[in-house]
Design a protein that fits this description.
Largest sheet: 6 strands, parallel
Helix content: 40-55%
Structural class: alpha+beta
Bound molecules: 5'-O-[(L-methionyl)-sulphamoyl]adenosine
Low-confidence stretches: 513-539
Number of strands: 27
Shape: elongated
Strand content: 15-25%
CATH topology of the largest domain: Rossmann fold
Number of helices: 22
Distance between the termini: 69 Å
Strand order of the largest sheet: 3-2-1-12-13-7
CATH architecture of the largest domain: 3-Layer(aba) Sandwich
């Protein structure tokens, strides 16, 4: 049986300037959807490209004392470089200056002209060059472009017009009968109102500049850049030169576009297709805008964020994860460095990174690195299996509705539950009792199995991290051939698999979020050496004053990592997060706690103890514990790291 096909496009970007994080946002969404569909077994065609003609580009080239072609060649190379760095898996990259497209635009223009839907007349009206959009006097906002707010210029020239008005009723009927066609619904309603306001015939040629595709039968005109650009979607699908490909992929399943260009895609584009007698795309999805600290990105405001610099600093998967997780698709979303760092630290380094690290560590320490076959399933295991199953089902449902950030939330809920499962099943305790070997095997198998499923589910979003998890789990099958079906079935992980050495997936970012950096730094000076293990109940010590007590700086600290200190059976080396900084401390609690048990706990710590060197390691602080006879329990507090204890 041939595979079902899926065709998804991004807008083709203007090479007037380098792309910023907002453009990267749009392409990342399309990439995640394309990768998800491939995982779900579809034959996917994913297209992106560049929209290279028009007055704006011609002017930019003039400003730079170069030809339009040389200008766009350079910028388009930077687009391709960005998509590579961001691991974008497009199947084709279309440039509107390519011959295949040039020929198609001319053929389409000619056909529509021949059938009488394009006619010549005089145009007089307004034009916004940055948006490449014609406006009527009554549509302007205080004399400015209603889309971008920039000044418009008067245009008076002989032009060809496209009879859009003729198709108005057909289009309206189509939109009303196909509720999925324009998404989300808010955009659909806007478009319906716009059409009901009356469609004017559209000016589709220009004569006052020449950087464009000439009208085939009247070469002093160039085709209007939006007419030229929109047809890219059928050029690349093979409308003119590859009928087989065209019938395979067309109609497109999703044109993913920013909200401000939904109008072009859901009014002009369908009418061009109606005039050609070609089926309409199944969906135009208008996503929201990425803003910076609540503000639109612009060169003049100096708040344009370069995606390449971010990828170099944080890695492409972290950026992709942030963009996809932070913003609900149809809505605007905010980009901030603080929010990015928080997400990396909380979701990637802590939740996902710790689950992998703790699990592999325990499989290594307790089972010699072998994922043994599970024993009997207890209620807590069944609950985890059920959650994994419903997570996959929910994930699919959300992905089918382009609800990427909710799909990601579901996966992270499973990861969070599994971290808790470790605390509840306490494998370190099971490992001490040979009679509980079967139980230990079950728990460790379940951890590895959740990680296997999570790797599959996150692969459309984090294509670098997912195969790394696969490799660390020691799974031998090629990750590139994995399917979504393999996530649906619990228990696919072969018993006997040997895990690799755990390697951190995402190191914690130390950069301080601006808000926190302004708060007073935590004191680090004091006296006394680390000590957390007492064996006797102390008799009361002499009284101290409240001022003396106030000298102690006690804080909540989250344990990020814990490991045994070599050749010291009482000591653990802890890495803790104090909210404003990380510390390393040595604590004499190894007889009472397994390292895995501590990760993720919020302990109470004296932070202003004078640093001390223990076994060659500098320890900066001391965790508090209650002790009685040979029992010891750490003092914990369910409060954010850095909270003061008084
Ligand atoms: N060339 C036209 C599209 C033609 S498609 C046949 C164009 N190009 S653009 O480069 O200006 O914008 C391309 C896409 O980037 C648009 O969908 C736009 O919404 C998106 N974005 C530009 N800035 C953005 C943000 N700040 N946030 C999210 N997307 C944004 O329009």
């Amino acid at each position: 049986m041939p595979k079902k096909t899926f065709y998804i496009t991004t807008p083709i970007y203007y090479p007037s300037d380098r792309l910023h994080i907002g453009h990267a946002y749009c392409t990342t969404i399309a990439d995640a959807i394309a990768r998800y569909k491939r995982l779900a077994g579809f034959d996917v065609f994913f297209l992106t490209g560049s929209d290279e003609h028009g007055q704006k580009i011609q002017r930019k080239a003039e400003e730079n004392n170069t030809t339009p072609q040389a200008y766009v060649d350079k910028i388009v190379a930077s687009f391709k470089h960005l998509w590579e760095k961001l691991n974008i898996s497009n199947d084709d990259f279309i440039r509107t200056t390519e011959r295949r497209h040039h020929e198609l635009v001319q053929a389409v223009f000619q056909k529509i002209f021949d059938q009488g839907d394009i006619y010549k007349a005089e145009y007089e009206g307004w034009y916004c060059t940055p948006c490449e959009t014609f406006w009527l006097e009554r549509q302007l906002n205080d004399g400015k472009c209603p889309d971008c707010g920039r000044p418009v210029e008067i245009v008076k020239e002989e032009s060809y017009f496209f009879r859009m008005s003729k198709y108005q009723d057909r289009l309206l009927k189509y939109i009303e009968e196909n509720p999925e066609f324009i998404q989300p619904t808010s955009r659909r309603n806007e478009m319906i109102n716009f059409i009901k306001g009356g469609l004017e015939d559209l000016c589709v040629s220009r004569t006052t500049f020449d950087w464009g595709i000439p009208v085939p039968f009247d070469t002093k005109h160039v085709v209007y850049v939006w007419f030229d650009a929109l047809t890219n979607y059928i050029t690349a699908a093979g409308y003119l030169n590859d009928r087989e490909k065209f019938s395979k992929y067309w109609p497109a399943d999703i044109h993913l576009v920013g909200k401000e260009i939904v109008r072009f895609h859901s009014i002009i584009w369908p009418i061009i297709l109606m005039a050609l007698g070609v089926e309409l795309p199944k969906m135009v999805y208008g996503h929201g805008w990425l803003v910076v600290e609540g503000d639109k990105m612009s060169k003049s405001k100096g708040n344009v964020i370069d995606p390449i610099a971010l990828i170099d600093e944080f890695g492409s998967d972290a950026i992709r994860y942030f963009l996809l997780r932070e913003i609900a698709l149809g809505l605007d979303g905010n980009f901030s460095r603080d929010a990015l760092i928080s997400r990396i630290n909380a979701d990637l380094a802590n939740d996902l990174g710790n689950l992998l690290h703790r699990s592999l560590n325990m499989i290594g320490r307790f089972n010699g690195g072998v994922i043994e076959a599970p024993g009997e399933t207890e209620a807590i295991d069944q609950e985890l299996h059920d959650l994994a199953r419903t997570t996959v089902a929910q994930y699919e449902k959300h992905m089918e509705h382009q609800d990427i950030n909710t799909a990601l939330k579901e996966v992270w809920a499973l990861i969070g539950r599994t971290n808790k499962y470790i605390d509840e099943t306490a494998p370190w305790a099971l490992a001490k009792d040979p009679a509980k070997k079967d139980r230990l095997n079950t728990v460790l198998y379940n951890l590895a199995e959740v990680l296997r499923i999570a790797a599959i589910l996150i692969s459309p979003f984090m294509p670098v991290t997912a195969p790394k998890i696969w490799a660390q789990l020691g799974i031998k099958t090629d990750f590139a051939s994995v399917t979504l079906g393999e996530a649906q079935a619990w228990g696919r992980l072969p018993a006997g698999t040997i895990v690799a050495q755990p390697e951190p997936l995402f190191p914690r970012i130390e950069d301080k979020p601006a808000a926190e950096a302004e708060t007073k730094p935590v004191q680090t000076v004091a006296t006394a050496a680390p000590k957390a293990e007492t064996t006797d109940q102390p008799s009361c010590l002499p009284e101290i004053t409240i001022d003396e007590f106030a000298k102690l700086d006690l804080r909540v600290a989250k344990v990020l990592a814990a490991e045994k200190v070599k050749k010291a059976d009482k000591l653990l080396l802890l890495t803790v997060d104090l909210g404003t900084e990380q510390r390393t401390i040595i604590s004499g609690i190894a007889k009472h706690y397994e390292p895995e048990q501590l990760v993720g706990q919020n302990v109470v710590m004296v932070v202003n103890l004078k640093p001390a060197k223990i076994r060659g390691i500098e320890s900066r602080g001391m965790v508090l514990a209650a002790s009685c006879d040979d029992k010891l329990q750490l003092v914990t507090a369910d409060m954010p790291p850095g909270s003061k204890v008084k």
